[in-house]
Write a structure and sequence with these properties.
Helix content: 25-40%
Largest sheet: 10 strands, antiparallel
Order of helices and strands: EEEHEEEEHHEHEEEHEHHHH
Strand content: 15-25%
Number of helices: 9
Strand order of the largest sheet: 4-5-6-7-3-8-12-11-10-9
Amino acid sequence: MHMISTTSGAKPVQCRLPADNEIAVVDWVNFTIGIETMGDRFLNTEDDTDENRWLSAITALDTHLEHIFGFATTSQNRTGRNFYKQSYVLGQDMGLVCIGGQRNTILIMLSGKGCAFADSGWEKRLYNFLNVIAKRPKLTRIDLAHDDFEGKNINVDWGDQQDSLGGFQCGNRAPNIEYKGNWKRPNGRGRTLNIGSRESGKYLRLYEKGRAEGDPDDNWQRAEVEFKAVDRILPFDMLLAPSEYFLASYPCFQQIAQDIQPARIETLKKNASISARTALNTIRHQYGKYINLFKQVFTPDELITLISHPDSFAFPKRLDHVSLTAMRM
């Protein structure tokens, strides 16, 4: 707990400290797994209704969640979330578990509160689960956070200056920047600097955490980098080495801890687009004449069904994680 002073008296604010030799922590994580992780029988819809099958899958998943985080689902929501048909509360408002549809996947969302209250070592256990047990595992979002309780190494004014110097520029174009709070005449309520776009694969929030919590004199500054699986694959290693990926997110962050080797996440959009074109060209040149003939006999839907792989979840490794947008470029 970090203690701050407010007009109502001292206020403890929960915060998660990084491990030794680390400067960042995992502050949010979303991941998906195939429903067949709990057994191939959950892919079979002939014997049970979808609702019963989903409930049984969540019950089986709870054993894994309890082992990894120290808590499992506690109740079912009345509606689905995130385009899934059912959703469940994880722990005591520690996150969500969503199921139903979406290519027979399950979405697990661990919030910042969940990251803080999960049993120590959960990152390593989740890493092992995703690598060894889970089927079709994928990190879809992970937030990495760095706290500077005195605001000496990073602060919002430093961030504003770094933007002018190109410290957040990772390519040819400077990222979008937004200012929130009273920057012209700071009033002690906290200011925020947002870098990038929420729709992109990387987004930074740099803000005056202590002042936002109610202490106008507390200089606690926090930087949160939100990574999403947009045009990039989020490696499971991010769970074990958050500092390396945090430092590599923007050039100016590397001065925070020069003794830690940054680890970059390469974007995939260009390579994915090339791979998709190559695959389509291969199909056209090798099988295009056959397809032209079959189109005279079968409807498009019938033809797709006939020539598709019998396993609906089988995909070429080179094209795995390629977004529909990238494939249409």
